[in-house]
């Protein structure tokens, strides 16, 4: 059995997994394990991927189906004449012994040609087999120790080690076997929380070897670069690896991130961090001056998206265009508007839909405060409405809390607001038929 594509060198197709109910998730896990045990399937890092869905049978069980419709559009249909039924019966004349086959198991006995195996990959939404992901802490795992919202640290669990802080002494041996997110106490009665090293938390605790992108910018980048499981992403400017960690989660479990930094020590440190967080199979770290040398030639035409964090990104844009697939997306992070202007001028030759965004994050403090109950002048007798107490001079920066009145939830903007971090410029590689480009600027 073989799969033949209509278009030679057709780009791999990887659709996002369908959402499954908890019962279907459990059924998927059971059937995958059964097929793995029988060696009918095997783990794959193919750029192809078809989603899985379930159809309920009359007996209440589930039939697992793989949606190959997108693959079928690229497949050359084989034409075979169907034999006549009377001719088939004629061939049975004189037969005395008959056997039957189980068509369900027979499906898995049809051998697919080795060069076509990657194209038949299915996407599993069995989250127990993805990045994090152990649910329980083991010796050697990396955990995020949460003391306060502004005080967290990454700790590698070693059975004979201890953690000492102002809340007391915590033995690592007491952590082993506990679930992530649990609360552990010290001998003094203090406590901390043990959290899983998600990309968001890792961004907050990693060592800042360079300026990094934070959660607001990172989420915006992943959305506009249209990253899904199975994508191939090139990144220039690894730095502290903050963005790389989130890119790896977005393209897991079958995609790949190729990240490059001209500074060898930073690249080595980033590679060690990816080992700690279990992302080494998804991230390839290289030492290369992308501005001067461009991206490696063996990646030409393989990238779904390219991210540039360089002092002179316009020098790397021509090379990035060669790496992208048709309709691929490029993103450039620049702290200065002059860099944006020069990059946009370079982009207009081969890219379209050029847009620049500035993401500003504004947080709110939500707390419970005591409010006076006061009588409104125009209210009806017996009705009351809450009103604020006046702040005294020494209380300008604190919430007014009083023992009188009933509690009420209040929100106000944080006194500390993060200012400008940088501009994000996005552009899409022109298709062959495209002849015009648009340049726009937005503030988000």
Descriptive notes:
- The chain has 444 residues and is α/β, with parallel strands linked by helices.
- It contains eleven helices and 19 strands.
- The two termini are 51 Å apart.
- The chain has three domains: 22-94 and 105-123, no CATH class; 136-197, Vcp-like ATPase, Chain A, domain 2; 202-361 and 423-429, Rossmann fold, CATH 3.40.50.
- The chain has helices at 22-37, 69-73, 85-91, 103-107, 199-205, 215-224, 242-251, 264-276, 290-293, 317-323, 337-347, and strands spanning 52-56, 62-66, 142-148, 151-156, 162-165, 168-171, 182-185, 191-195, 232-236, 256-261, 283-287, 303-308, 324-334, 351-357, 364-374, 385-387, 406-413, 423-429, 439-441.
- It has an eight-stranded mixed beta sheet with strand order 11-10-9-12-13-18-14-19, sandwiched between helices. It has a four-stranded antiparallel beta sheet with strand order 4-3-8-7, covered by helices on one side. Strands 16-15-17 form a three-stranded antiparallel beta sheet, with no helix packed on it.
- The protein is globular.
- A hairpin with a 5-residue loop joins β1 and β2 (62-66).
- The model is unreliable at 125-133, 373-385, 388-402 and 433-444 (pLDDT under 50).
- α5 (199-205) runs antiparallel to α7 (242-251).
């Amino acid at each position: 059995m073989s799969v033949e594509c209509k278009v030679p060198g057709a780009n791999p197709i990887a659709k996002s997994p369908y959402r499954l109910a908890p019962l279907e998730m459990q059924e998927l896990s059971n059937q995958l394990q059964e097929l793995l045990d029988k060696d009918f399937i095997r783990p794959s890092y193919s750029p192809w991927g078809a989603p899985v869905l379930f159809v309920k049978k009359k007996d209440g069980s589930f039939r697992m189906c793989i949606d190959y419709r997108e693959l079928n559009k690229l497949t050359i249909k084989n034409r075979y004449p169907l034999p006549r039924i009377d001719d088939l019966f004629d061939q049975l004349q004189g037969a005395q012994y008959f056997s039957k086959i189980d068509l369900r198991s027979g499906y898995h006995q049809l051998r697919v040609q080795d060069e076509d195996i990657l194209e038949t990959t299915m996407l599993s939404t069995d989250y127990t087999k993805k990045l994090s992901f152990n649910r329980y802490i083991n010796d050697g795992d990396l955990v995020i120790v949460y003391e306060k919202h502004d005080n967290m640290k990454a700790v590698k669990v070693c059975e004979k080690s201890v953690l000492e802080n102002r809340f007391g002494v915590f033995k690592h041996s007491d952590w082993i076997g506990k679930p992530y997110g649990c609360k552990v106490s010290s001998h003094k009665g203090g406590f901390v929380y043990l959290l899983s090293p998600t990309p968001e938390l890792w961004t907050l605790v990693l060592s800042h070897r360079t300026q990094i992108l934070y959660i607001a910018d990172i989420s915006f980048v992943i959305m506009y670069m249209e990253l899904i499981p199975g994508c191939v992403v090139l990144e220039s400017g690894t730095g502290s690896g903050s963005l790389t960690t989130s890119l790896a989660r977005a393209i897991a479990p079958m995609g790949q991130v190729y990240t490059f930094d001209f500074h060898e020590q930073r690249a080595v440190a980033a590679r060690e961090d990816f080992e700690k967080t279990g992302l080494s199979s998804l991230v390839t770290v290289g030492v290369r001056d992308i501005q001067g040398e461009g991206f490696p030639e063996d990646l030409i035409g393989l990238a779904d998206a390219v991210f540039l964090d360089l002092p002179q990104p316009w020098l790397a844009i021509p090379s990035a265009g060669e790496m992208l697939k048709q309709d691929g997306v490029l993103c450039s992070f620049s702290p200065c508007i002059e860099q944006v202007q020069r990059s946009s001028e370079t982009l207009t030759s081969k890219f379209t839909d050029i847009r620049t965004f500035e993401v500003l994050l504004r947080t709110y403090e939500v707390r419970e405060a005591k409010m006076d109950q006061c009588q409104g002048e125009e209210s009806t007798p017996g009705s009351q409405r809450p009103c604020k107490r006046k702040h005294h001079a020494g209380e300008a920066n604190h919430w007014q809390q009083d023992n009188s009145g009933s509690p009420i939830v209040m929100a106000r903007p944080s006194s500390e607001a993060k200012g400008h971090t940088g501009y994000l410029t996005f552009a899409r590689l022109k298709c062959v038929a495209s002849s015009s480009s648009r340049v726009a600027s937005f503030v988000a």
